[in-house]
Amino acid sequence: MAISGFGEIAEQLRRSTVLVRPGRQGNGSGVIWSEDGIIITNAHVARGPSASVELWDGREFQAKVAMRDPRRDLALLCINASALPAAQIADSSRLRPGELAVAIGNPMGFVGALTTGVIHAVAPLQGPLQTPLGGIGSQTWVQANVRLAPGNSGGPLADARGHVIGINTMLAGRLALAIPSNAVSKFVAGQSSDGWLGITVHPVRVPRSRNSHDFGLVLLEVEPGSPAAQVSLLAGDILLGANEKRFASLEDLARVLEGSGPRLLRLEFLRGDYARVRQVTVQLGGTAPERNAAAA
């Protein structure tokens, strides 16, 4: 079905989309969130303290990474510019399955590429999810059958009016996943959780014959320099619980990571032959300690 004025809608959305060059191999996309120079992209796109941003009209700026939420995979960039063509932001809580979805980005070097599809759901994914940054838990995603490719990350997912409903992040099977616009707005307002461990996990069953626990979360990957790496957690370790409460699901770990500001999290885990339960205290939401703490 043809949409009246769709060409103009797509053109405006392109003008609100930027090319992000993080200073390493590969490019990403971003969204002009406000006309005074706030750009939103993925944290896995803007990993460093700065990035180069190119606007649709060809102007280039050096952007400062002012805020990051690796757990939600969001980064806020600031450029010294004004009167920018900011995107219009929609209320993602009003989305319904079957609505048109439009994605703009810079995949494989094609600047301003457009793809369309429909919304499948606005909900957590079923089963474990390994994100580009090892995120875990039951976060809500805008799920749509639009085609994404490397370079689309950080770009807008919009509705039929061209209003942004999410920030494109990754693929899960045949569906594209976008961070809902309402979650992005909370991040911009400084209401985002900073509870990030820097791990990729998967649920496992632990044999009862070796200890009293039967559910755990095995670490598939520990990101270098992350809070988990700072306390010497290793791939293959199995998390059993935190703060003297056992895990029964992925959501349990997501819950204990919620919050903001400096705080301590005491984790129980198994290593090696699983002969004994080990403990380690991780610092969240603050500056990592200079010396690595050995796992107990």
β-strand number: 18
Q: Count the helices. How many?
A: 4
Q: Describe the biggest sheet?
A: 6 strands, antiparallel, barrel
Radius of gyration: 20 Å
Report helical residue fraction. 10-25%
CATH topology of the largest domain: Thrombin, subunit H
Distance between the termini: 62 Å
Strands of the largest sheet, in order across it? Answer: 1-2-3-6-5-4
CATH architectural arrangement of the largest domain:
Beta Barrel
Overall, the morphology is: globular
Quickly list its features:
about 300 residues, about 10% helix, Thrombin, subunit H, Pdz3 Domain, mainly beta
How would you characterize this protein structure?
With 296 residues, the protein is mainly β. The protein folds into 3 domains: 6-78, Trypsin-like serine proteases (Thrombin, subunit H, Beta Barrel); 92-126 and 135-188, Thrombin, subunit H, CATH 2.40.10.10; 199-284, Pdz3 Domain. It is 10% helix and 38% strand. The protein contains 4 helices and 18 strands. It has helices at residues 6-15, 181-188, 227-230, 250-257; strands at 17-21, 28-34, 38-41, 50-54, 60-69, 74-78, 100-105, 113-123, 141-144, 156-158, 164-172, 175-180, 199-205, 215-222, 238-242, 245-246, 263-270, 278-284. Strands 1-2-3-6-5-4 form a 6-stranded antiparallel beta barrel. A 6-stranded antiparallel barrel has the order 7-8-9-12-11-10. Strands 13, 14, 15, 16, 17 and 18 form a 6-stranded antiparallel β-sheet that branches. It is globular, with a radius of gyration of 20 Å. The chain starts with 5 loop residues before the first helix and ends in a 12-residue tail after the last strand.
